[in-house]
Description:
Oligomer: single chain
Number of helices: 5
Number of domains: 1
Helix content: 25-40%
Number of strands: 7
CATH topology: Rossmann fold
Structural class: alpha/beta
Amino acid sequence: MRLCLVGDKCGKTSIVQRWISPRKPIKNENTIGIDMKTLMMKLDLKVVRVQLWDCSGEKYYQNLLDTYIDNSDMVVVVFDLTRTESFERAKRWIERIQGMHTKITACIIGNKLDLESKRAVREKTIKRFVRQLNIKNVFYNECSAYTGENCRETLHMIVREGIRTDKVYTVEDFKPETSCRIV
Length: 183
């Protein structure tokens, strides 16, 4: 299963770090270009290989992203719950994806759930936006990459949706776990 994570400086890399190594402290890193990580996981009696394509939010790399989005099984749009402008950019990401793909599955993740007192984007606003989308398979969840709250559950939800929509391949089709960085 290939996941392409997009969004503008909202904690995508931290979410990926939490998915890959849930017990390790988060390193504050900026993605240069596109960073790929591979995760093998067992879920619902299936072994699934998940390729996580963490795409930089920098404008300089935006032209590269269409190819990765187009070759993904699912696009994960991440935004920062504490910044309204981050949610507005997430809306533009969804519009861009809709323009490319009408049949793609999209997951929208609101990050920084641990900063509830600084929350700028209300859940009802987000859910209203999701209901209005013209994407057949779209869902929303919130998590905190910093504390790990709801991160694992969000990944499981994404993978289960991949299983449900037949976007998961057999583990025999792949080589052992690898990671690479594309710049």
